[in-house]
Amino acid sequence: MKVLEPATKTTKSVASMQLPDAPEFTANVETNINGQTYRALVENRWSLLEFLRDHLGLTGPKMGCDRGECGACTVLLNGTPVYACGQLAAWSDGQEITTIEGLARDGQFDVIQKAFVKHDGYQCGFCTPGQILASKALLTRNPNASIEEIKKELAGNLCRCASYNRIVEALQSVQAFGQPMTAAAANNSGGVVGQALPRIDSAERVTGEARYSADIYVPGMLYARVLRSPYPHARIKSIDTSRAEKLPGVRAVIHFDNAKVKWASGDSNGDRFIFNNPARYVGDAIAAVAADNRHIAEEALTEIDVEYEPLEFTIDMEKALEQEKVLGPASLFSRGNVDEGFEAADIVFEGRFTSAHHNNAQLEPRVALAMWEADRLTVWTPTQGVANCRAQIAKDLGIPVSKVRVIVKYMGGGFGNKNQNHDFELMAAVMARVARRPVRIEFTRKEDFTAVHGRWPTIQYYRAGVKQNGVLTALTMRAISGMGPYRKGSGAISGKDLYEFPNVRTEIHFAATNVTTSANYRAPSESQGVFAIESIIDELAYRIQMNPLDFRLKNFSRDADGRPFTSCALEECIRNGAERIHWRAEWAHPKTKKGRIRHGLGMGIGSFAAEAGISAAMVRVNRDGSVQLFVGVTDIGTGAKTVLAQLAAEVLCLGLDDIGVVSGDTECTPYSVGESGSRTTIQTGGAVVEAARDAIKQLSALAARRLKIPEAEFKTGRFADPSDPSRTVTFAEAARLSPVAILSSASSGQQGTGPVRTSFTAQFAKVAVDMLTGEVKVLRYVAVQDCGTILNPLLSTSQIKGGVLQGLSIALHEQLTWDRLTGVPLNAGYHGAKIITHEDAPQIEVEFIEPAEPNGPFGAKSVGELPIIPTVASVANAIYNATGVRYYSMPITRDQIINGLNKASEE
Amino acid sequence: MKPFQHIYARDTDHAIELLRTYERRAAVVSGGSDLLPMMKERLVAPEIVINLQRISGIASVISEEWGVRIGCMTTLHTLESHPVLRDRFTALAEAAGSVASPQIRNVATIGGNLSQRSRCWYYRGPFHCWLKGGSECFAVNGENKHHAIFGDGPCYMVQASDIATALYVLGGQITIAGPRGQRTLTAERFFVSPTAGWRRENALEPDEIVTEVLVPAPLPGARSGFMKAMERAAWDAAIISIAFSVVEDGGLIRSIALALGGVAATPLRACEAELELVGKMLSPDILRRACETLVRDARPMSQNAYKLQLLKGYMQAIFGNHSCVQGCATV
């Protein structure tokens, strides 16, 4: 790698700006925090949040946006919930502040913390300290708050994992019982798998003790910020960083000229570096500065002079295609003969669907801390796969994999945008090298929205043919996926395989646009594709006057493009859900609807086959019988650590508490493909089971020797003599027989041929549409899934609820808007994106059908991405059923609804 | 943020003296929920921040015989939960309760809310727009679905303060203090459409602050309210809003005040629609005509014509909920 050698620092001249610790820029404060008095000299410009976190070590309150738009930094100020980012540190003088760290008393959790644990009130846990404190203030002031009041008072705390239902349940249980309801007692005879057990790291998450990447501080750490292009497409003619370098406290400045490092995973065409010339979108990285604190780093950015030559740019997908600006050849597929298919059709539908770009919007913003020790690099970064991240960092920097260590113990969500390595990790590594100090690079929330990636927007043109008797005959799709300027995602559009179209032809073009890159966000090709397909299926049903439920039952795919499913309970899911929502009794044609508030029923189905991949696991049985499970996963909120521990516990016949999980550290955890593609439980879980079985085998051999028999039998947690079962050796005794700890490891992967292991969902929405105001309320939502064996119903239910609620948010609200004349993003941030709040979240009713699934572990199938697949379509179809107006653009925002209702009433 | 000096004002006179001393180098902070994000975004960079939080006596709601006197530092939370305001000045309580999120309402003040700068995404973005002193309003040929449907520019922002809209129907008055003395303006005079000579959203000079809001007692029998259309269920700016105060007697509208928010650079009194309704028995036809009058002078931009329908729809919704005109709201 070409990197600037550490510069010899000449004497710096004092900058024209006064030194920040001059007395008039500081204040003395004496504050009571969590019952303790703190005296400090603070800079006037410090927020209370950074004072608490960076200077007092109270990292419970989280930085989610630093703009008062998310709630993750909620603390209690004299008992009142406020955003710590919206308070200056100086204002804390004479005040009483409570952070999450102050809630537990004498080692005893507050009843709300206990309730959050028991009711799974979180997934990634990043918003949790804020949620708990806001809840505490609410129930203190209004112990009998109604559910509406609870939602209103917590509306200022966003949860992207959308654990809204769970949080409400937790608080209601505190109200009902004064104590959280005890979880169903663990069924000791039935083992651990299948039990609704709380997450194993719940204590850390509800106390603020969980250390996320931005909670890691190392001595000498510098703070880094990135300078970004103000133009959507511009050549950098020159960069002058001399003024920035002279600023007191600036330790490294890197940019396109002195840090040419490839970022291979940023573009499958291999066309991307950590700094690029030309810059290709507003937000493209131009330079980065590391300084003693983030304020100096921010200031230094304004001291960098860049001469840009603006170039022509395109932000419109169709224009890009016309100009042949594409990022690879079109993807083509065909089956059968569509022309014949359309000939045979009685009804042909034609339509154009669009979907907007929206951001993953996980609560934890981008951050990475890089530290060199001699030639060894450690990077703390919230990545969904430490092993891949490490390998890619090593490759991009041109150093051996063995010299790189990637660590993440807790992360605040990702939903697909924290896979592989990232440019900012490389930037941090380079700056750490130059400055010879550890460097933490931080993104603002706006940067997180614009400078990473979101779901690819699409324009999809369809033709679909059906016979009057309900048989589908043909489907063509011509579509454009807007990939941004770099090919980081596949751009695929899924959905057609959900239904039996005998004749199909599809064509997808990948437009290069000068806007934020598009890549993976939870079911990256499905949500927008299924929105279209399920709307079409719905429309065809209406056109042949068949009930949409019956039409779907008739036509859903019974196999995966010719290959059988390993197991499939989709039909049962559909029937179960239809019954729960009273479809037969309540469904009525839109033309029968009258009045101002109209109800509608809509549905959609989805399927997800976990991606292939190999993962490994290691079990270590210590000599005292305690067990550690080493897995490379990072648990982005899915509960992977817990489920994997359950699998180990099940095989080893131990309780969940007996398994210590070591995760997310490439120094000691084996390879995991990473938490993406809904495959952790299957891949890593499979390896965990194998490793645990092997550990049993080793222990069994030791026990057999002790019992002086050829082979021992492992039953109910003990090793027994098969011929005389009263002679046993306990698990712990067997472990002690080994001179060293028992180690076992295994890896597992999915083959590509044969039956396809697929999960299924059937979702039903009941909406109320206000015909005057265009307001849409989801009155009921039922989601029935076939995910094989549910290893932990508490966690899996949370995942389904969360995925559906995310789906509602992207269905009705979220889109990143760029100014057409300048390519500047206009609404990057939580307020602009309109992520749903507590008040928007209806209760999602979840059911699992568990068919016999031959593959392991224990018959489990994917869960994670499945729930967000048909949600947009279900809501869109319900709106159609209520109003008779079909919407072809997602998100279906208020202005769209109004315009559609207007148009319909004119016709 | 750049480094800055931070001074607690002892009282409002001291605050004004500091403003006069530092001229345009200073900014006033009340709750901070608008100033701090603007400073972090580097839209403003005051060298001196004058803090009003330690001034006593300006953060309460005082009932007088003529109405209520509200100190500028009264929080939105106090406004939304105050029994007198909820009962007799409902539009104000509802408007305050609809702003942002609970945490923000806990610190945001009425003075700050009324003084807030435009939330137009061009103004808040890296654009040297007309309001900032440039020559062009970028919403005109750009993304304008959130912008004004009334008025001819040159600025097409919408006034973001919901409390402003409520004050229009309650006859609220706003007291301003500065180095040149004190003055009390009606809400209608406090809020102004930016002009070439006055590129600001309100009548405040840069060295003046809002000190008090005065709201006269409502007419006997008057009911007021505030309806706000939002994208998500909470924590959102008004797509449009309607504040109303009405005295109604068995279906006969004895008096009515209507104000529209989210549709122009200032809240708008819908005087002509009021004339259609006052003295009349509410009926579907009368209501429908009033709705048409409401939007008759609208000049929507390329993306915001839907706001017209929203105004009409919410008008119907408000008066359709009225107990004596149940069923008047037609579809």
What are its keywords?
heterodimer; A: 907 residues; alpha+beta; seven-stranded mixed beta sheet; six-stranded mixed beta sheet; globular; disordered N terminus; B: 331 residues; Uridine Diphospho-n-acetylenolpyruvylglucosamine Reductase, domain 2; Uridine Diphospho-n-acetylenolpyruvylglucosamine Reductase, domain 3; Enolase-like, domain 1; 3 domains; five-stranded antiparallel beta sheet; four-stranded antiparallel beta sheet; 12 strands; 29% helix; disordered C terminus
What features would you describe in this structure?
- The complex is a heterodimer of chains A (907) and B (331).
- Chain A is 28% helix and 23% strand.
- With 907 residues, chain A is α+β, with helices and mostly antiparallel strands.
- In chain A, the strands form 8 sheets. Chain A has a 7-stranded mixed beta sheet with strand order 9-11-7-18-15-16-17. A 6-stranded mixed beta sheet of chain A has the order 13-21-20-19-14-33, sandwiched between helices.
- The termini of chain A are far apart.
- Chain B has 12 helices and 12 strands.
- In chain B, the strands form 3 sheets. In chain B, strands 4-5-8-6-7 form a 5-stranded antiparallel beta sheet. A 4-stranded antiparallel beta sheet of chain B has the order 9-10-11-12, sandwiched between helices.
- In chain B, helix 5 packs antiparallel against helix 8 and helix 11 (284-295) runs antiparallel to helix 12 (306-320).
- The longest helix of chain B has 15 residues, at 306-320.
- Chain B is globular, with a radius of gyration of 20 Å.
- The N and C termini of chain B lie far apart (52 Å).
What is the residue-mean pLDDT of chain A, rounded to a whole number?
93
Q: What structural class do you assign from the helix and strand content of chain B?
A: alpha+beta
End-to-end separation of chain B in angstroms reads 52 Å
Number of spatially distinct domains of chain B: 3
CATH topology of the largest domain in chain B: Uridine Diphospho-n-acetylenolpyruvylglucosamine Reductase, domain 3
Number of helices of chain B: 12
End-to-end C-alpha gap of chain A: 65 Å
Question: What is the subunit organization of this protein?
Answer: heterodimer
Largest sheet of chain B: 5 strands, antiparallel
What's the number of extended β-strand segments of chain B? 12
Name of the CATH class of the largest domain in chain B: Alpha Beta
Major sheet attributes of chain A:
7 strands, mixed
Question: Which CATH architecture of the largest domain in chain B is right?
Answer: 2-Layer Sandwich
Strand order within the widest beta sheet of chain B: 4-5-8-6-7
What is the largest interface, and how many residues per chain?
A-B, 73 and 54 residues
